[in-house]
Design a protein that fits this description.
Elements (H helix, E strand, L loop, with lengths): L4 E4 L5 E3 L6 E4 L4 E6 L2 E6 L6 H9 L1
Parallel strand pairs: 1-3, 2-4
Antiparallel strand pairs: 4-5
Length: about 60
């Protein structure tokens, strides 16, 4: 998690943000939230195996 990530009523989430990014997340449960190469990805943890598919769709 980035230093400026604040979670409220959020459970079992994976959040990976650049250290300088301010993020507030409320009400998510079982999600992955990642920023990489100026792309913000928010997906259900149960769909984690599709992350490469989602990235490919955005980068093409």
């Amino acid at each position: 998690m980035g230093e400026k990530v604040h979670l409220f009523e959020a459970d079992n989430c994976i959040v990976n943000m650049p250290k300088d990014k301010k993020v507030v997340i409320q009400g998510l449960q079982d999600y992955i939230v990642v920023e990489d190469n100026d792309v913000l990805l928010i997906c259900k943890k149960e769909e984690e195996q599709r992350i490469k598919e989602f990235r490919a769709a955005v980068l093409n």
